[in-house]
Design goal:
It catalyses: L-isoleucine + 2-oxoglutarate = (S)-3-methyl-2-oxopentanoate + L-glutamate; L-valine + 2-oxoglutarate = 3-methyl-2-oxobutanoate + L-glutamate; L-leucine + 2-oxoglutarate = 4-methyl-2-oxopentanoate + L-glutamate. GO terms for molecular function: L-isoleucine-2-oxoglutarate transaminase activity; L-leucine-2-oxoglutarate transaminase activity; L-valine-2-oxoglutarate transaminase activity. Its cofactor is pyridoxal 5'-phosphate. It is an enzyme of class 2 (transferase). The chain is α+β, with helices and mostly antiparallel strands. The protein has 2 domains: about 120 residues, D-amino Acid Aminotransferase, Chain A, domain 1; about 160 residues, D-amino Acid Aminotransferase, Chain A, domain 2 (Alpha-Beta Barrel). It contains 8 helices and 16 strands. Strands 8, 9, 10, 11, 12, 13, 14, 15 and 16 form a 9-stranded mixed beta sheet that branches. Helix 5 links the parallel strand 12 and strand 13. Helix 2 crosses helix 3. The protein binds 4'-deoxy-4'-aminopyridoxal-5'-phosphate. The site of 4'-deoxy-4'-aminopyridoxal-5'-phosphate (PMP) has 13 residues, from helix 5.
């Protein structure tokens, strides 16, 4: 993720990653009490570097921090400017951007008076392939919304994601689908999910999921392309009957599934509405001009 030259932004200063210091007595390190974002920048069709939906991501970072009772003193403008500068100093265009807000030590659990922040970047090429994922149902469920503020991107929540992903990979799958506490399909470890049936898309309604920014983009694209889409409670049996399915998230972008619990989807991915969404998404993030041409190909 970094080498001796990598630069990050730490509480207002640009510092070498290899020289950056963090407090070993941090509450965030001990308890996972931190919030973060996963953002991407793309080399767009014009050659310019653009951060996709930067405002939405930094709005969510603020909301995550405030919902965790962490002070948040930064403006989107300041953070977006710092992010572009970190990209420039590392000479990255296609990159993953990781801001983290963290807290000093506090064993009494009174409200913190101060938070800290850093922004890291690493290179990540956009995904243009037709690779399809082998997915299993995780034995881990997503955190109960009554136990956690699940719409916040809080670091501690991701222990659940790590366990689920490790389980899937150990068993020979690419990734896991997790259910919610009632056994309905919820989301992946770091991505939302859609399935397709007879040309129509379905995705879990909000409430027990992280309502992703990519999920919102997919809903927008469905609207623009005239693809019918419904948000609802989804059973695992419905996925077994589906023509196709995909994960979507900032890092994952839109990526199709080959199989669900070893059962292959019958429809050829290349003939699905889901693939049109995948291509439209890539056109959107890279600001490729002729969306309809991408779709018609
Ligand atoms: N669900 C979870 C649990 C996630 O961690 C992510 C990644 N942030 C998503 C969904 C997708 O969110 P987004 O599209 O905003 O990246």
């Amino acid at each position: 993720y970094y080498n001796s030259e990598t630069v990050l932004w730490l509480n207002g200063e640009f510092v070498k990653a290899s020289e950056a210091k963090m407090d070993f007595y941090s509450q965030s390190l001990h308890y996972g009490y931190a919030v973060f974002e996963g953002i991407r920048s793309y080399k767009t069709a014009s050659g310019e570097t653009k951060i996709f939906k930067a405002e939405e991501h930094y709005d969510r970072l603020r909301n995550s921090a405030l919902s965790m009772n962490m002070p948040y003193t930064w403006s989107n403008e300041e953070l977006i400017e710092a992010t572009y500068e970190v990209l420039r100093r590392n000479n990255f265009q296609d990159a993953y951007i990781r801001p983290v807000v963290y807290a000093p030590m506090n064993m009494s659990f009174v409200q913190n008076e101060v938070s800290y922040i850093f922004i890291e970047v690493w290179e990540m090429a956009p995904f243009f392939g037709d690779k399809l994922l082998r997915i299993m149902t995780s034995s881990f469920q997503r955190p109960n919304p009554k136990a956690f503020k699940i719409t916040a991107k809080a670091s501690g929540h991701y222990v659940n994601s790590i366990l689920a992903s490790q389980e899937a990979k150990t068993k020979g799958y690419d990734e896991a689908l997790l259910t919610d506490m009632n056994g309905f399909a919820a989301e992946g470890v770091g991505a939302n999910f859609f399935y397709e049936k007879d040309g129509k898309l379905f995705t879990p309604a909000t409430g027990n999921i992280l309502p992703g920014i990519t999920r919102a983009t997919v809903l927008e694209l469905c609207n623009e392309l005239g693809i019918e889409v419904e948000e609802k409670q989804i059973t695992l049996d419905e996925i077994n009957e589906a023509d196709a399915a995909f994960f979507c998230g900032t890092a994952a972008e839109v990526i199709g599934w080959e199989s669900f619990n070893d059962v292959k989807f019958k429809k050829n991915w290349k003939e699905t509405a889901s693939r049109k969404i995948q291509q439209a998404y890539l056109a959107r993030v890279t600001e490729a001009e002729v969306l309809t041409e991408v779709i018609a190909e």
